[in-house]
Amino acid sequence: MATVKAQLEELSGVREDALKEARLIVDAAQETSEGLTDELQAKVKELTEAADEADEAIKELLARDEASSALIAKIDSFVDHKPAIANARGVHLHNPVAEDTQAKWKIPATVRRFGTLRNFTGDVDGTTPEERAYRFGQYAMAKLSCDLPGRYQFRQALNFARDHFGFQPTAIHGEGASDTSGAHVFVPDEFGMDLIRLREQYGIARQVFMTRSMSSDTRTDPRRTGGLTAYFVGENAQITESTAAYDSVTLTAKKLAAITRMSNELDEDSVINFGDELAGEISYAFANKEDECAFNGDGTSTYGGMYGIRPRLATLTAGTAPGFGVGTGNAYSELVLTDFEYVVGGLPVYADVPGQVSWICHKTFFHTVMVKLALAAGGVNSTEIVGGVPRQMFLGYPVRFSQVFPSTTANDQVAVIFGNFSMGASFGDRRNESISFSDQAYVNGQSLWERDQLAVRGTERFDINVHDFGTDTAAGPIGGLAMAGS
Q1: pLDDT of the residue at 428
Q2: Model-level pTM?
Q3: Which of 413, 352, 233, 205 shows the shortest CA–CA distance to 289?
Q4: Which residue of 23, 141, 328, 425 could cross-link 157, Cys pair, CB 3.0 to 4.6 Å?
Q5: Residue 463 neighbours by CB distance under 10 Å
Q6: Continuous H helices in 90-180
């Protein structure tokens, strides 16, 4: 039987060959008029599934190898006691059996939950939403005790955080991007996915952009800008060489901070609701700002230097650029169905991937413009009028709401966008959130101390790069509709 190393090398080769062949098929299809046909899609799916199987087998072998190495290290760590035994004096000593002190923790009976949890949902790794809200609340109360020691001292939370998260009450909270001292007090990793799910629930950018995990403050990915060229050649003639063109998409994490007010009426018996409310408040604030940067960012400090999709599209000539249309008028009431059809028609075939293309606009715009046009198209019965639109769809594509989009008309305004956003925009997620508390801060010019309130500040690091949105002569994966200038 082959060694583990040989098996790993063989599986790695299978995985790389499958991915390489899949990439070649996709790249070649993009250069043809037919694009990625059903047959080619099936082949790519077969190859990626083969790569997945090889990847899982690699992970399993690596885990077994790591376990074997750990056992060998454990065996080698034992000290030879023969010399000591030879010199032993023969005194009998009792050798008690060690007891398991790591029994599974339970939520104390005194802890209460008021109402239904809104933010922690679904079981994750065998833990219920209530258990995860309790754990997050215990961590937050421990952090609160450290930030405001003269006002709060939740001993149970401090002990829980120390035992379960390695929380050190004396740790200094440093936030510098270059701080590598280990003094940061970040939210434990186990809550990362819950907070990300909430941001995806509240925001749109994380749902539709290509999310890139950032292991450092910067990340650079290659972007293909041009493919190979095929030439007709005569017999025995030299083939003309061509090369694929690439450039780079760079993400540089920026620090974002959000502050909100909460009630200071806290006790450790209400830790579940405290954890649930805190997670929702921080996630909503982050999601809203992420959407602002993703869709409205104009490169100023207000948006961390990021440029969003709407300002990017505004650099093109509406009505000339394929997929970026100009409305029939400068008022929402003047828009007609053909305005939207121009946008859909401009989307390249390669980007029109089922499940990846959608509209994004304000909820008011959808119901006062898009729904109105759909109902006016005819074939509407009383059930549809009374019951409303069964699904948020328009011209065969789903509609997503982001309340950072405009809800009232304005000249030259990009009112709605459309496309395959994962192909044209990248979201860099640094994933190192932190939280801090204060009862002395001013929020919106109001003193928290005077109002007997508590402030919580959350920070995260992320970046957004909208890199493909077409030109005045070439369609890109992202388009939209702008209002007329007058």
Answers
A1: 92
A2: 0.66
A3: 205
A4: 141
A5: 24
A6: 129-147, 155-165
CA–CA distance, 234 with 448 (Å, rounded to integer): 82
Please state, in angstroms and rounded to a whole number, the distance separating the CA atoms of residues 441 and 259: 10
User: If we measure between CA atoms, which residue out of 349, 314, 364 comes closest to residue 480?
Assistant: 314
Provide the token pair at 229: 């060229």
Q: How far apart are CA 389 and CA 242, in angstroms?
A: 51
Determine contact, residues 451/439, Cβ cutoff 8 Å. Answer: no
CA dihedral 266, 268, 272, 275 (to 10 degrees): 60
- Whether the pLDDT of residue 44 is over 90: the answer is no
Residue 412 φ then ψ, to 5°: 60, 15
Question: Where is 8: in which H helix or E strand?
Answer: helix 4-30
Residues 209-213 have a mean pLDDT of: 89
**Beta-strand pair 358-361/397-401:** parallel
Token pair for residue 8?
Answer: 């790993």
Closest CA to 422 of 353, 356, 348: 356
Residue 437: partners with Cβ closer than 8 Å, 6 or more residues away: 143, 144, 147, 148, 454, 455, 456, 457
pLDDT at site 479: 96
In the 8-state DSSP scheme, what is residue 124? B
At 194 the pLDDT is 76
Asked whether 313 and 483 are in contact (CB, 8 A), the reply is no
- The one-character DSSP state at 186 is B
pLDDT reported for residue 294: 96
Residues 6+ apart with CB under 8 A from 457: 257, 258, 259, 435, 436, 437, 438, 441
Question: What φ, ψ does residue 439 adopt, rounded to 5°?
Answer: -115, 10
CB 257 within 8 A of CB 459: yes
- Quote the strand ranges of 378-452, DSSP E: 393-394, 397-401, 414-419, 425-429, 434-438, 442-443, 446-447
Could you give the 3-state DSSP secondary structure of residue 71? helix
What is the C-alpha radius of gyration for the chain, rounded to an integer number of angstroms? Answer: 29
Q: Residue 404 and residue 210: Cα distance in Å, rounded? A: 20
Please say whether the beta carbons of 347 and 419 come within 8 A.
yes
DSSP state of 292: I
Mean pLDDT of the chain: 81
Structure tokens at 110: 């005194």
CB 214 within 8 A of CB 249: no
**Least confident window among 100-114, 144-158, 426-440:** 100-114
Write the CA distances from 40 to 203, 222, 248, 313, 364, integer angstroms: 34, 24, 28, 32, 40
CA atoms of 147 and 266, how far apart (whole Å)? 15
- The residue type found at 64 is R
